């Protein structure tokens, strides 16, 4: 097998590397700037506790800027890292904000208590009567609530729609945080340059958020005027929705990507779900295929023909643009077959293709007929792996994978499915020493 040398692939790879380098420089320069502001700000921290509290406050504000940029759905970040990895970072930055939001006021309160030589409780009560502090404490409470509902135990008990609605509180936190800084931002009021830098940074982040999450989606949906063209049941709990509109050839969507879908008039505005394209975009229509799990997905089969559709996207780097080899292995589990099926239909797929489709039984293999037809047209090998996973049936162990695909290390591998399946496959690929640049996976854990 030989590496892909198509100019488009090389361009995408170089673009991603340049974007990653630029983002790294952006983070480093801002961290240095924050440290310099802290060093030259001087009083009124008064003591070590107050100084630590002020430094933590600066890093808390910057962490919020980073979080805003992560949820802004910036195309440059999507192309460089992929939405799945960005969502993982969103989670960890969220936990970082949580701890900074707890520690920042704690050190400030202790600092004032030591300076005034009064109890911590009395200092906390005194400070809590001030408007900026009240707003900050409300923001901290909301952060605690969002994080508490994001831990795995709580997350499993919430529907996707409820979890997403809770995360909309992040916008309230950002608003309160900005107001709090207007009152308490002594560290960046050193001179005109520090003020311009700090508020310029926030203006950039908020501008990116408004552009990526509001302005661009509104313009695209006004241009394309998406409507439901057909609703096709695929099985007892799986349905495909065909969407048409104007000038869809101008929509920059690729096979393997997903949109955030809303259906105004059928669902409430905050009910949104990330559904992959289950067919390669053809410039005339889009198709999503979903399993009825949450409120939105379960109600898709009741969508009336002609219903309005509001789509935000496309998102995701789970595309053939990131391929590095001529041979490809596509692995899907359950409803994770949707982006895999669209990749198999992509005209750029070419080369030697193997598809592994893991389901409990053939009856549950959604879109199987389409997969078989596409595999025949593409000359691909399709393996439908059924049965309950157990000692005698572990298809994604390293030896099992290599038995099915002996040249697996010479292929790009695309994986989409439940977390357990994806984790097992990725672990085996590492043990088989498949280069990380050849491994591509997608999971849907979007929050805000």
TrEMBL record:
It is found in: Membrane. It holds the Pfam family Ferric_reduct. One of its GO terms (cellular component) is membrane. Keywords: 2Fe-2S, FAD, Flavoprotein, Iron, Iron-sulfur, Membrane, Metal-binding, Oxidoreductase, Transmembrane, Transmembrane helix. The keyword Lipoprotein does not apply. It is a multi-pass membrane protein. Residues 221-321 form the FAD-binding FR-type domain. Its cofactor is FAD. GO terms for molecular function: 2 iron, 2 sulfur cluster binding; flavin adenine dinucleotide binding; metal ion binding; oxidoreductase activity. The chain crosses the membrane at residues 21-40, 52-72, 92-114, 134-154, 166-184, 196-216. This is Ferredoxin reductase family protein. It comes from Actinoplanes aureus.
């Amino acid at each position: 097998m030989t590496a892909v040398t198509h100019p488009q692939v090389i361009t995408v790879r170089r673009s991603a590397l340049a974007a990653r380098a630029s983002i790294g420089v952006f983070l480093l320069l801002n961290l240095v700037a924050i440290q310099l502001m802290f060093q030259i700000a001087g009083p009124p921290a008064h003591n070590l506790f107050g100084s630590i509290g002020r430094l933590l406050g600066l890093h808390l504000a910057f962490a919020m800027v980073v979080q805003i940029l992560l949820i802004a759905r910036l195309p440059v970040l999507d192309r460089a890292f992929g939405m799945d990895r960005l969502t993982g970072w969103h989670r960890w930055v969220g936990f970082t904000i949580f701890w900074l939001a707890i520690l920042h006021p704690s050190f400030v309160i202790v600092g004032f208590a030591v300076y005034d030589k009064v109890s911590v409780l009395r200092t906390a009560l005194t400070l809590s009567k001030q408007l900026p502090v009240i707003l900050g404490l409300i923001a901290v409470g909301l952060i605690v609530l969002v994080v508490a509902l994001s831990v795995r135990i709580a997350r499993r008990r919430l529907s996707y729609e409820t979890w997403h609605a809770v995360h909309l509180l992040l916008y309230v936190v950002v608003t309160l945080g900005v107001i709090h800084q207007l009152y308490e931002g002594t560290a960046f009021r050193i001179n005109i340059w520090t003020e311009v830098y700090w508020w310029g940074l926030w203006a950039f982040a908020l501008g990116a958020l408004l552009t990526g999450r509001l302005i661009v989606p509104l313009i695209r949906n006004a241009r394309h005027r998406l409507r439901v063209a057909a609703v096709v049941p695929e099985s007892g709990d799986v349905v495909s929705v065909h969407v048409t509109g104007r000038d869809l050839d101008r929509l920059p969507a690729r096979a393997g990507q997903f949109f955030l879908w809303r259906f105004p008039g059928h669902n409430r505005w905050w009910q949104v779900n990330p559904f992959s394209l289950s067919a390669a975009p053809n410039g005339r229509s889009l198709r999503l295929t979903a399993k009825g799990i949450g409120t939105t997905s379960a109600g898709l089969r009741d969508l009336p023909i002609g219903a309005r559709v509001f789509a935000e996207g496309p998102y995701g780097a789970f595309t053939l643009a990131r391929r590095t080899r001529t041979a490809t292995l596509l692995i899907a589990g359950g409803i994770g077959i949707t982006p895999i099926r669209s990749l198999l239909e992509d005209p750029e797929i070419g080369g030697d293709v193997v598809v592994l489709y893991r389901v409990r039984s053939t009856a549950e293999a959604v879109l199987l007929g389409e997969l078989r037809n596409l595999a025949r047209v593409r000359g691909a090998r399709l393996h439908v792996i059924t049965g309950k996973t157990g000692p005698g049936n572990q298809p994604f162990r390293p030896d099992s994978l290599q038995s099915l695909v002996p040249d697996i290390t010479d292929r790009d591998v695309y994986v989409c499915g439940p977390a357990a399946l994806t984790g097992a496959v990725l672990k085996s690929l590492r043990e088989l020493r498949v280069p990380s640049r050849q491994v591509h996976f997608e999971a849907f854990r979007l929050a805000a």
